[in-house]
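Sharing a chain and its predicted structure for anyone who wants a worked example. Both blocks are below, sequence first, tokens second.
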Amino acid sequence: MKISTKGRYAIRVLLDLAEHNNGEYIPLMDIAKRQDISEKYLESIVSVLSKNGYVRSLRGKGGGYQLARLPETYTIGSILKITEGSLSPVACLRDDGHVDCPRAAECETIGMWKDFYQMVNRYFDGITLEDLMNRRAEADNYVI
């Protein structure tokens, strides 16, 4: 399983919005500069985030983007699922965890793939944007 740049950048965009939240809309150009990501590529990512209710947008002067909810309500798992489509490690395992394969009854490996899929989902669903912000704050306060 490999997370695409779209999934990774979506997390970075939402984290950037959370860290720079001052109640105002943040221009995409500012996010692009801070994250060193093409503004054009970010447009496609925030479009997906907006359609799924993860960000609010405002056009025109003073416009930009902001989180639609509090950072602690966004799990990394939910962000990856809307950007990646699926976190399933194999084609025969659907997003709902069911097996879609005519060989399922005699497949020796399907249990392993199901366990892996559940482990990945539990891991990413257990991390929020707020958790990532707290990790960074803890790292910044760490003195050698």
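Comments welcome. Residues 14 and 45 are 10 Å apart (CA to CA).
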